[in-house]
Amino acid sequence: MLQTRNDPDSARADAQVQRLDDILTAARKAGADACEAVFAESRSLSVGVRKGEVETVERDENSDLGLRVFVGRKQAVVSVSEFSKATLDRLVERAVAMATLAPEDPYASLADPALLYKPAATKPDLQLFDPTHLSAESLQQRALDIEAGGLATGNDALQSDAASTGYVQNMWSMLTSDGFRGTHQTSLFFQSGRFIATDADGNMERDGEGRSVRFAADLPDVNDTGRLAAERALASLGARKIETQKAAVLFDKRIAKSVIGQFLGAISGSMIARGSSFLKKKLGHQLFDSSVQIIDDPLRVRGLGSCFFDDEGVAVSRRAIIRDGVLSGWLLNTGAGKQLGMPSTGHASRSLASPPGVATHNITLEAGTQSPEALMQLAGKGVVVTSMFGPSVNNDTGDWSAGASGFWFENGVIAYPVNEITVAGNLIDIFKRLVPASDLEVRGTMDTPSLLVEGLSLGGK
């Protein structure tokens, strides 16, 4: 996702822009009616350890350039990672030739110039770039400390599975033949730990904890990361199977975003335009309880998905996707918007080697009024789902299922861990009945509180 400019290295940015400008000029001379070029530089360093020993040290520095050209309503996208004049000349020649042979697409074009981001005299500082460089030695020590923090429980049933730390710093520049120019820098610092707990019968359970932030100073204490990861693994020991039944399900906030992710996928403009979404006729309809609000805020300070413009240069803004439970709009890039007769909503997302798709920025489902414990008391019995895998959804009907594990609760209190279960239901029904808890923590590109849904099908023994 393209982000915004934050200027500690304007000389590099200017060099990127000049190269792209030359590429666009060459593409127009070669026969392109319109074109768009993106240049990306990335620097990263990460260290992984296991059982007190370094397993991986990875350092990467790379640069790539992508060119999208239009010949009439035909388009092609080509990318390279070597920038000699001969290579760039071939890039332009190949892209125009490919576009000439491509099938006609009546919706293919650059973004509407009226929607493009225009820098203001004053704009908020989104604080997306931290120039901090961490040495491999310091990253190694942090990873070892994560392991030590988890093993400090002193429980013999516990062993480290892996711990890793690292960071990546990016710079992107994008130019279009319509006159858009945008440059940005971003950084990401991350750490994680994962542990294995083994019971007396040799049954193993794995769990972990991880965090990614824009600024190194915002990383949590490494000992806390290790301790929480270890506690989760130990808590899963002794998991049982349950009988097949219908019961309440409390999706823990760590994985509740998976449920909301199904909703976001179903309102993607490309899905709606193809007619392949179970929500294709639900625009303006009440999908959730009136207390539910789902916000996409691309202007969040230090947000992992924050930006001033999307990957087509369209200006972005804070949007209520669900307002008082009602679906207020689709997620649109230029192509999907044209197909549906609507303007882009600033949700274009692309790699350097492909046309734009659709993606969100910083999604938040706002917190409810009751704690997860209070919702469990109201439900009486059911499952707290802390892990899901292998989700399956029928895009036409919304029928959904996933493998899961977590904890059974009785009389509103956790009783024992459970595994090898499936959770199933219809997403339209799930959306209508879900109740948000009050435990929202904003930390990623999609954040939700825990979500209670009563009467779901649980598959067990």
TrEMBL record:
Residues 132-237 form the Metalloprotease TldD/E central domain. Residues 35-99 form the Metalloprotease TldD/E N-terminal domain. It holds the Pfam family PmbA_TldD_3rd. Residues 244-460 form the Metalloprotease TldD/E C-terminal domain. InterPro entries: Metalloprtase-TldD/E_C (IPR045569), Metalloprtase-TldD/E_cen_dom (IPR045570), Metalloprtase-TldD/E_N (IPR002510), PmbA (IPR047657), TldD/PmbA_N (IPR035068), TldD/PmbA_sf (IPR036059). One of its GO terms (biological process) is proteolysis. Belongs to the peptidase U62 family. PANTHER family: METALLOPROTEASE PMBA. This is Modulator protein. It comes from Asticcacaulis benevestitus DSM 16100 = ATCC BAA-896. The lineage of its organism: Bacteria, Pseudomonadati, Pseudomonadota, Alphaproteobacteria, Caulobacterales.
